[in-house]
Every structure is written in C-alpha cells, then in structure tokens.
Please model this.
Amino acid sequence: MPKSKQQIDTEVAMRGLVSIMNDTKWRELQKAVRAELPFAPPYQLKVVLNPHPEPEQFDADVHYLGDWSDECLSPFYEIEWIRIRARFLRRRGRLLAAEVCSVESEFLAILHRHDIPYRCDEDSIWIFGYVSSTGDLKRGQRTRRCSEREPADSLRDKFNVIGGWLPSLTFALDLRAALRPCANFFIAM
Model:
C-alpha cells in the first residue's frame, strides 16, 4: 500500500469517517462529465490530508471551467469532498454583463443515473468521498432545486418507532448492520 494511502487510511480512521465513493463511481462521474456536458463545471476540491480546499474561495459563480482530468482528480481515494458549481459566467465583452451558463439539471441527471449520493447547498452540489454521517445526502428522484430548503416536516434524520432508521436513509451505508440491537439491553419498568 502506498505511503499516502496509509496516511489517508489513518486520518480517516482517526476522524471517524467512512468511504461512500469508490474508484468506479468516481470514474463513472468523471467520464460522464467529460463526455455528456457542454462544459466541465468548475469545482472546489478538498483532499483528506489538506485542511484547506482548492481553490479556497468558491462562494460565487466563476469565469473559469473545471478540469475533470486524471491529473487533477486522481487518486480518487484522496478526495474527501468535491463542491461543484454547475454553472459559470461567460464573458460577453467589456460592456455587457456576463451570461450565466448552467448545466445543473444535466449534472444532477448524471448523479441519478450513476446512483451517486450528493448534497445540495445554496448554489452548490457536494459529492463526498468520505463522511461521518449520511443523513443529509440525497439519492434518486429529486424534485427541488439546490437552492430550495427541505420542508420542515421532512423525515430526514428521523428514527422510526420500530427501532431503526428508515430504509430510505440507509442508502450509502448499510446502517441496519451497524445498528444491530444489543441482546443485553433491557428497559426497567
């Protein structure tokens, strides 16, 4: 095992993270973005061993595109998360305001087709390589835009009365196996 892989495994274990993406999923995403989208969306990348993402500032739309090549994303096991802005500002000259070019719906379709868990915040789509909790990740059919908030009565992060997490919330990890009931647990009456 390469030294960097050992360091990453140690850091992941120390921080209590678990992997939810593998090389196959990352390659499917990378290949689909490069082949199917009219432009490669810009992104911010956070690797496990670096405390700061690159680029550090990524809170507004940008004028550049993302580089989805192996040179920028590999090795995939280093990726803690990637934050995608599925749009960029196309300059139209000095006098005209920049045009916003978006591929958000196409990008989300790729995530759904390849069954890649993600989270939407404000104007960004987050894909995690490692997480400590899968409670706020989405998968499957999506009806809201990234900027829309989840309804207050949502069942996200709810524990059902039978004694386990709702099946729809166990998509990334088989939490049912991790939450086996303890045989020595009794409630005193």
Strands lie at 18-19, 43-47, 79-84, 87-90, 99-102, 119-121, 124-128, 130-131. Residues 23-36 form the longest helix (14 residues). Confidence is low (pLDDT under 50) at residues 141-145, 147-151, 153-189. The two ends are 53 Å apart (CA to CA).
